[in-house]
Description:
Layout: H1 9-25, H2 27-31, H3 35-52, E1 58-62, E2 66-70, E3 84-87, H4 89-97, H5 102-107, E4 111-114
Helix pairs in contact: 1-3, 3-4
Amino acid sequence: MAVKRRIPVEEGRSALRTWAEAAATGAEDAAALPRTTRATAVRYTLEELATRAEGNSVEVRVPPFGVCQCIAGPRHTRGTPPNVIETDPATWLGLATGQLSWQAAVGQGRVSASGSRADLSSLLPLD
């Protein structure tokens, strides 16, 4: 089943590009972007991940902006799924753009990943 996009692709790419340019100059610049820009970038990248790795076995949470389910495998139907990844928006966007590696983010404790399928290293960055 195809992922239903809520963020227009060009709008999402623009927000992500704006965030990446600001983050390249400094974390403070990226944090100073309007909330709507950061939210659009996060939601767009979550939709992109779900499109590239369709499935329901892993839940990726980036509070307060969004969540997606991805990666083929066993589907959960109730409660907390067995494979959950959670991180903050800046870390997620760093991973999505390649400014931060999966191994570094996990090693620094910036990503909480539980479950045998909770590894996005082969899917990130979202080039």
